[in-house]
Amino acid sequence: MKFETPLIHGYLIKRYKRFLSDIRLDDGSIVVAHCTNSGSMKTCIEEGAEVYLSPAKDPKRKTRYTWEMIKLNGDWVGINTMHPNLIAYEAIKTNKIKALSGYTHVQREVKTGDSRIDIMAQNESETCFIEVKNVTMKDGDFARFPDAVTTRGKKHLVELIRLKKEGIRTVMLYIIQRSDVKQFAPAHQIDPEYANTLSLAYQEGVEIIPIRVKVRPEEIVIDQVLEFDLNP
């Protein structure tokens, strides 16, 4: 995924009210940037750290900028939760993920049951439903999800289980927007219900694919598939 317009460099002053952040630009001016991440952003906040913003496309929007990434321990961490779905969609369409290659029709936001699943991929022999989640929390060498309780995330897992029981391929795809982690695991202490439901989903045949991506000011690209550990 390439950024359409050049990003704007600055430094984080603070994040507040969940969706807002104050940023000092290189020219010394202070602007308010929209933060798309509604979670706690554990391990992603460091006041004074370098950040990049994208300019808003809509001139009428209240916040003129969107906070895209933050530099932590020498690496960029993507915090825009709107990107993982597009990253996954483009990667599946162009066969960049080996386990999800070979599909000739890829569609976003498909309603099934009482849920809307992020991606449906099809070829002549099968249909696959793929739910995508953004991961930014670091715990040692682990990337963990979620960083706040997610009833919606649990609902999606239940729908994937239902589809799998009907004989349809289902995948839980985690897009990890940081390079300083080596494995994926659910965040048992933050949301034990989600963690337990993920384990149940895996037992029922729902596939788990954690993908680490490289975040850069010019683009976000697929890096590699990580191993996962579902144990508490």
Automatic annotation (TrEMBL):
Organism of derivation: Carboxylicivirga marina
Protein name: Sugar fermentation stimulation protein homolog
Alphabetized Gene3D superfamilies for the sequence: 2.40.50.580, 3.40.1350.60
Gene from which this protein is expressed: sfsA
Domain SfsA N-terminal OB: 13-79
PANTHER family the UniProt entry points to: SUGAR FERMENTATION STIMULATION PROTEIN A
The organism's place on the tree of life at top rank: Bacteria
Domain Sugar fermentation stimulation protein C-terminal residue range list: 83-218
Similarity comment text for this entry: Belongs to the SfsA family.
